[in-house]
Amino acid sequence: MDDCLFCKISRGEIPCRKVYEDDEVLAFHDIRPAARVHFLIIPKQHIESMLSVEPAHAALMGKLMTLVPQLAREQGLGEGFKVNINTGRAGGQEVFHLHLHVFGGGPAAA
Ligand code: 5GP
Ligand code: ZN
User: Fold this and answer.
1) pLDDT at position 2, please?
2) 72, 75, 94, 105: most buried, per Cβ within 10 A?
3) Which of 10, 95, 100, 102 most suits a substitution to test ligand 1, by most atoms within 8 Å of the C-beta?
4) Is 99 a catalytic residue?
5) pLDDT value at residue 5
6) CA pair distance 7, 13, nearest whole angstrom
């Protein structure tokens, strides 16, 4: 998707602070952290939102979910964290490329 912000980030056209990358998935720190640790996990494939998820995405979705505890521990959130998937305009989604927010560790630094 030419105009999608997160597709541009996953292609390396817009820089990010990377947390994790493989051939299917990218994780990076949120530019406006809502907590001391706040990163996003995205599939590199352009999927608009949870509303577009289908059975064919099951393996990829499973991979995203299993990366959550691994990356959260690596980022110092071994005691616990929140996961949020804003879905659709009515669900507070602003960037229409599926992403999981993972955040915790107390308030963001001022
Ligand atoms: P949404 O409301 O769609 O679930 O969340 C989009 C998130 O993307 C927001 O938390 C916002 O701070 C983050 N974001 C928007 N633009 C950028 C960017 O250019 N780089 C990074 N790293 N995060 C971004
Ligand atoms: Zn995209």
Assistant:
1) 84
2) 72
3) 95
4) yes
5) 98
6) 9
Query: Which ligand lies nearest the alpha carbon of 94?
Result: 1
The pLDDT of residue 1? 76
Strand partners, 3: none
Written as six digits, the tokens of 66 are: 């299993």
Cβ atoms of 97 and 4 closer than 8 Å: yes
Q: Which residues contact 2 (CB under 8 A, 6 or more apart)?
A: none
Which of 4, 30, 48 has the most ligand 1 atoms within 8 A of CB, as the residue to mutate?
Answer: 30
Q: What is the pLDDT of residue 110?
A: 73
The three-class DSSP label of residue 36 is: coil
| pLDDT beneath 70: ranges in the chain | none
Closest ligand to C-alpha of residue 8 is 2
CA distance 54 to 81: 27
**DSSP-assigned beta bridge partners for residue 49:** none
Q: Which two tokens stand for residue 11?
A: 């292609």
Ligand 1: atom nearest CA of 86 is 4
